Amino acid sequence: MRTRRDCNVNDAKGEIQSDSWHGNLSIVATVRAALRDKRLLFAFQPVVWAATGEVDYFECLLRMREPEGGVVAGGAFISAIEQLGLIGFIDGYALKQTIEELSNSPKIRLGLNISSLTARDGRWLRSLISLMRNRPCLARRLIVEITETAALHDIEESARFVDALHHAGCRVALDDFGAGHTSLRQVRALAVDTVKVDRSLIQNIADCEEKRLMICELLALIKSFGVATVAEGVENAGDAAIVRATGFDYLQGYHLGRPTIERSWLGAVTDTAAAASAFGLGSAGG
Ligand code: C2E
Ligand code: CA
Ligand code: CA
User: Fold this and answer.
1) Are 61 and 42 in contact (CB under 8 A)?
2) What atom of ligand 1 comes closest to residue 147's alpha carbon?
3) What residues contact 270, with CB distance under 8 A and at least 6 apart?
4) Distance 59 CA to ligand 2 centre (A)
5) Ligand 1: distance of its center to the CA of 61 in Å?
């Protein structure tokens, strides 16, 4: 399986390089077969309250189970599907799966990722609106995560999309902020509920004074818009302590909980307990 880095690019003549093209086609065939054989599934990763370590919601991250039993992360195949313009069938599937999860587990909230192309696709939005009609208790528990590239494409169109999601009753998060070129002015114009700061700005923050200062200033500006903030990619206790002290509302990353295919909210050991222990707050369940 190729990685996200391998799946691109146009050559000097504007033609897609044939090895990437064939690689992408073979990834698409593999993913289509996985969809047909019901081998596309979610891993769930907690997003926790900075102050308490309690889980606010679980982000749904697509996984593909290989026929041999191995599991491939979304990062390895999603960009290939996007580049061939076929992400609609994945995001449509992911929407239905997320709604089913929400129906089955009334106490949890879930985050659903959508591609930049999907954010501009009226069919996906119509499908969400129709699936959520008369089910406000489901909509209230759904957080739609839009990537920064999607938001950048056309800020007014994106703002209308965010507005429509709000009307449907959902929360909206701007994903990967800081990885691209979205300006703070655009963040304000989008009127999202939450900004997720990309892990490239968070990782090793405990060891980098310059990063700490930059994040402090950035956070103050984002918070002045009245939006909640998530620090992504928190991998160790040192970074967790710094981002909490900086004033992030929520934390996400391997230190707080890795993505798992098991639904941890159904298990005996809750994520709240695991996250509390990652915070050094002790674990209620032992
Ligand atoms: P994302 O939305 O930014 O998701 C976070 C990615 O970072 C996930 O990779 C997750 O496994 C990984 N991650 C989480 N915590 C840490 C950490 O502490 N350190 C490091 N190094 N990585 C961490 P994954 O699952 O491979 O997903 C990659 C991307 O694929 C996602 O980035 C998202 O943009 C996209 N994606 C995932 N599921 C879907 C989906 O259902 N639909 C669409 N359109 N895109 C999806
Ligand atoms: Ca995301
Ligand atoms: Ca992200």
Assistant:
1) yes
2) 34
3) 55, 264, 284, 285
4) 7
5) 6
Who's near 183: CB < 8 A, 6+ residues apart? none
- Tell me how far the alpha carbon of residue 223 lies from the centroid of ligand 2, in angstroms: 20
Structure tokens at 279: 């915070």
Q: Strand, coil or helix: what is 113?
A: strand
Whether the predicted model's global pTM rises above the 0.85 cut: yes
Confidence band (pLDDT; 50, 70, 90) for 150? low
Question: Residue 259: exposed, middle, or buried by beta-carbon count in 10 A (0-12, 13-18, 19+)?
Answer: middle
* Average pLDDT of the chain, as a whole number: 87
Specify the DSSP class assigned to residue 17.
Answer: P
Task: Give the number of the atom of ligand 1 that is nearest the alpha carbon of residue 43.
Answer: 25
Residue 241 has pLDDT above 80, yes or no: yes
Q: Whose CA is nearest to atom 29 of ligand 1?
A: 75
Q: pLDDT for 28-61, tens place per residue?
A: 899 999 999 999 999 999 999 999 999 999 999 9
State the distance from the centre of ligand 1 to the C-alpha of 136, rounded, in angstroms.
Answer: 27
Domains of the chain from N-terminus onward: 38-278 (3.20.20.450)
Q: Is the CB of 61 under 6 A from ligand 1?
A: yes
pLDDT of residue 274: 53
Cβ of 249 less than 6 Å from ligand 1 = no
Mutate to test the pocket of ligand 1, among 31, 71, 78, 258 (most ligand atoms within 8 A of CB): 78
What is the rounded CA–CA span in Å between residue 268 and residue 159?
41
Could you tell me if the CB of 253 is within 6 A of ligand 1? yes
Q: pLDDT per residue over 92-137, tens digit each?
A: 999 999 999 999 999 999 999 998 889 888 999 999 999 999 899 9
